Amino acid sequence: MKLNNYRKGFESFLKLERSLANNSVEAYLRDFDKFTQFLELKEFNPSPDEVSDELISEFIQWLYEIGIAARSQARIISGLKAFYRYLIMEDIVVKNPTDLVEGPKIGMKLPEVLSLVEIDQLISAIDLSSKEGERNRALLETLYSCGLRVSELIGLQLSNILFDEGFIKVLGKGNKERIVPIGKTAKKYIHFYLEHRRNHQEIDKDAVDILFLNNRGKQLTRVMIFTIIKRLAKKAGIQKNISPHTFRHSFATHLVDGGADLRAVQEMLGHESITTTEIYTHLDRQYLKDAILQHHPRAQIN
User: Fold this and answer.
1) Residues contacting 281, CB < 8 A, separation 6+
2) Of 187, 222, 248, 254, which one is the catalytic site residue?
3) 149 catalytic, yes or no?
4) What is the mean pLDDT of residues 122-141?
5) Is residue 101 scored above 80 in pLDDT?
6) Residue 287 appears among annotated catalytic residues
7) Does residue 296 have an active-site annotation?
8) Which of 52, 134, 172, 182 is 20 to 30 A from 272 (CA-CA)?
């Protein structure tokens, strides 16, 4: 990666010119590394002056799709801006592609919703003869069955799957634990994955209690989940721009469309505010109006 040739100089700039503490320097470098990781996934190896503002916008979209929160997106973009300020100061580039990039407003955009048919198409596209086939089917079923965030999925622990009770314990935002029901289909394929793949793997000592593992016996990453879903969507011929978060959004939408109580959906998603759940579940104004007219004692006119 050509940009990595400037990483060491950027680090020195942060330490010497900006006089930043080691923790801050490391944070900036992690943000820089996130950008080069994105470029590697695109199989694009630009020099610094070949990076355009359109490419930066694609990067912001990618950050959103892999589940990076808006505030974290803003910090990462700040790190990228600092990198280009360093390049300009050193006369390495003359144009800063981050100048026109604003805060990650794209992070507020809701993802697509998958229909039940499309979810089945995605799962049917999995090659079950491959090493990761059973794992991928189990993780997609779990993602959709439980409405998990991608961070919750990759951190899901074996000890927190309560098969007999039909629940899983999930560690969500702010280290808040919640209990989420898990469907029979997801349980079935988790059992298949454990029996046919995971129980026969050599597992890294740091991942002994992690449910979903890569082929090296280590915990999966956000990016790996994102890549799995993108590849399956392409194979299944699904044109929608989907990500792991699409499954969470579809989970909530399908529940409400099926008549689930909004408070119950809020609890399962781990939302602090019911307002957030309303946004996720596409409750339209007519639905709310009908609910009021039908149930509120003062809504009826004699």
Assistant:
1) 252, 253, 255, 256, 262, 265
2) 248
3) yes
4) 94
5) no
6) no
7) no
8) 182
Which one is catalytic: 30, 109, 173, 218?
A: 173
Establish whether 245 is a catalytic residue. yes
- Identify the active-site residue in 149, 198, 249, 254: 149
Read off the amino acid at residue 264.
A
Q: What would the mean pLDDT of 69-86 be, rounded to a whole number?
A: 85
Write down the catalytic residue from 34, 198, 245, 249: 245
Tokens of 197: 């793949």
Confirm if 271 and 242 have CB atoms less than 8 A apart.
no
> Would you list the domain boundaries of the chain?
2-108, 116-288
Per-residue model confidence (pLDDT) at position 294: 62
- Predicted confidence at residue 39, as pLDDT, reads 92
Tokens encoding 251? 């989970």
Tokens of 186: 């997801």
| Second CATH level (architecture) for the domain 2-108 | Orthogonal Bundle (1.10)
| Whole-structure pTM value | 0.59
**What's the Rg (C-alpha) of the chain?**
22
Question: Measured on CA atoms in the order 118, 280, 61, 272, is the torsion positive or negative?
Answer: negative
Does the pLDDT at position 299 exceed 70? Answer: no
Catalytic residue among 6, 64, 86, 280: 280
How far apart are alpha carbons 133 and 196 in whole angstroms? 10
Residue with tokens 């935002």: 173
Would you identify the CATH topology of the domain 116-288?
A: hpI Integrase; Chain A (1.10.443)
